[in-house]
Amino acid sequence: QVQLVESGGGLVQPGGSLRLSCAFSGSIFSMYDMSWYRQAPGKQRDLVARITGGGRTNYTDSVKGRFTISRDNAKNTVYLQMISLKPEDSAVYYCNAKRIIDLVSRWGQGTQVTVSS
Description:
Layout: E1 3-7, E2 10-12, E3 18-25, E4 32-39, E5 46-51, E6 57-59, E7 67-72, E8 77-82, E9 91-99, E10 105-107, E11 111-115
């Protein structure tokens, strides 16, 4: 059973940086596309960034140039480096793993990111 454990969230001032990590276990990491989603209070959960098993990436427009998703297949971990953070980036950030062969999806428990002065 795939398990995902996020870490790295917290409180940061506008313009600051954070790096989120998501540790993957329970299956073969390279067989999964990995994504970060976020959900603000009262809003739907939206895709932030995705990285395929082969390393291709895509981002939602609002974070392009500020966020970078990466994966370390040796450590079974996916990262989200966030710079120039804005108050509107505040949300619970969720890691998602989607198995390439059948699109079965798993979620982490989420980590809170708060951008505020």
